[in-house]
UniProtKB/TrEMBL annotation:
Species, as recorded: Pyramimonas obovata
Protein name: CoA carboxyltransferase N-terminal domain-containing protein
One BP term from GO: fatty acid biosynthetic process
Gene Ontology MF, one: ATP binding
Superkingdom, taxonomy of origin: Eukaryota
Domain CoA carboxyltransferase N-terminal: 326-498
UniProt cross-references to Pfam families, sorted A to Z: ACC_central
């Protein structure tokens, strides 16, 4: 249709409204683009412009880049937020280019080769803090008229500005983005456990009747597992894992474009069933969030702890229509957890939550387990960090997790159990793998020694969680400062000495 529009345009421009504040213009010559953009900027009505033109010797990717560079200052002074180009040629796939205000109208590599409307629906701009590589893309099965049921892209992302505050903790993820045009591709999912129960019930009924529903339910179970967009996304993630993509904090995003015929309650139920039925796989594949955009809001399933996910509803901004900012890179705390996870262990501060969960599960009177909120009830678990002060004495020092400057951490804990209703205290000592690669120095030994002395003095049991890499082997910093090394380049000791 666009090729026909180009031919019909002759020397004239054809304007097509494609959304609120967005229009597409079919032009026949790249030289018309500067005047077109100047006119749009002067009118101040549109915020997004898509330009469609025929690819030729004078209309190439390089020529478009030069034209946009020449207009960049004027575009920055306008109200435009996004300019995209579709270069069409007979017998060849379209070439898509995009220029965004957030990049000072330089090319947005995230959207190269992606249809502008699809890039907007997939919210690719939210990946702006990462360098992104497209691993695969697939339109799913199509209808008779040729419209895909859904589009799916699998993207490998590595943080753009690498944060070296925690060694070995570069943020790498896989983002799976899907745009669904048929609601049943999402809603037809049924939790395996629920279908299995129905199969069992129907099987019991079949023994006394000639019902054929057993076979139909078996087909339903198979179809639910093979045709759901959520299951398809999970299988794609598993495929990339087999190819060696070692990533954490992977994210799944679904935009339901068939929102008019989809009830939000059904979307929430489907998402809840999916995370319930596939929680072990999701945790194994390091999926931390699953986001489903529907209408003016979105449902987000967060991985909380263990194999549990929590589903929440978020509302999009009424003015911008955007419900989320760009995905943030990992915080310092998250990087520390990542270091421990990659070493096959658990971050030392996370053991507190594990102990609390175990105590709550074992205590039938635990308020945290029963969801109670009695302000007068004493919790079943308490823990306070002990820090070595300047006088070499362990003292209580409540502080945020992850702010330790020593690889050995100590907690004084109290818990109430069914066997001891009055509660009991103990000391928990653990090594932090994220601090200096989990190695030990004299300071770590001193903290450990003081913790054991405290246990003996107060008659408390000691629980030690060990995850370390042995002694710290290096030259003492005090000795280093007294050496005058004849470096080849003092600014770069790696070049060696004379």
């Amino acid at each position: 249709g666009v090729n026909n529009a180009i031919q019909a345009a002759g020397r004239n421009q054809v304007k097509m409204q494609i959304g609120n504040g967005a229009s597409a213009f079919v032009v026949t010559d790249l030289q018309e683009v500067p005047a077109l953009l100047a006119k749009v900027a002067a009118e101040g009505v549109l915020t997004r412009v898509a330009v469609v033109l025929e690819r030729g010797e004078e209309a190439t990717e390089e020529a478009v880049a030069e034209a946009m560079e020449a207009e960049r200052e004027d575009l920055l002074a306008s109200a435009l937020q996004h300019v995209s180009f579709a270069l069409l040629a007979e017998g060849a796939p379209p070439a898509y280019l995009a220029y965004a205000r957030r990049l000072d109208f330089r090319e947005d590599k995230l959207e190269r080769g992606v249809e502008p409307a699809l890039a907007l629906q997939m919210e690719l701009s939210r990946l702006s803090h990462f360098h992104v590589k497209r691993l695969s893309e697939s339109p799913a099965s199509t209808l008779a008229v040729g419209t895909p049921n859904y589009y799916l892209q699998v993207l490998y992302a590595r943080e753009a500005a690498e944060n070296q505050s925690v060694r070995g903790a570069v943020d790498t993820r896989i983002f799976l983005r899907a745009v669904v045009y048929r609601g049943d591709c999402f809603l037809q999912y049924s939790a395996p456990k629920r279908l299995e129960r129905r199969l069992s019930e129907t099987y019991a009924m079949k023994r006394t009747s000639s019902s054929s529903s057993f076979s139909s339910l078996g087909e339903e179970l198979t179809r639910a597992q093979e045709s759901s967009v959520l299951v398809d996304m999970l299988r794609n993630l598993e495929l990339e894992a087999t190819r060696g993509a070692a990533t954490k904090n992977n994210c799944m995003f679904v935009n339901l474009q068939a929102a008019g015929a989809v009830a939000e309650a059904a979307v929430e139920e489907t998402l809840a069933q999916f995370v319930e039925g596939h929680a072990p796989e999701l945790v194994r594949m390091s999926v931390t969030t699953i986001e489903v955009k529907v209408g003016d809001g979105r449902f987000v399933a967060y991985h909380t702890a263990g194999k549990r996910f929590k589903v929440e509803r978020h509302s999009d901004d009424d003015h911008t229509g955007e419900g989320e900012h760009p995905y943030p890179v990992l915080t310092r705390m998250q990087r520390k957890k990542l270091v421990a996870q990659r070493a096959g262990s658990t971050y030392v501060y996370d053991f507190l939550a594990i102990f609390e969960e175990l105590v709550a599960a074992a205590d039938p009177l635990s308020w945290s387990r029963m969801g109670g909120s009695d302000a007068g009830a004493e919790p079943a678990w308490k823990a306070t960090e002990l820090v070595l002060n300047s006088e070499g004495v362990l003292e209580e020092a409540p502080r945020p997790p992850g702010t330790n400057d020593c690889g050995m951490v100590v907690f004084k804990c109290w818990m109430r159990t069914p066997e001891c209703r009055a509660g009991r205290s103990f000391v928990l000592v653990g090594s932090d793998l994220s601090h200096m690669s989990g190695s030990f120095s004299l300071r770590e030994d001193q903290v450990y020694c003081k913790a054991l002395a405290l246990c003996r003095a107060e008659g408390l049991p000691c629980v030690y969680i060990s995850a370390n890499s042995g002694a710290r082997i290096s030259l003492n910093d005090e000795v280093k400062r007294r050496l005058r090394v004849a470096w080849v380049d003092p600014a770069c000791p790696a070049k060696g000495f004379e």
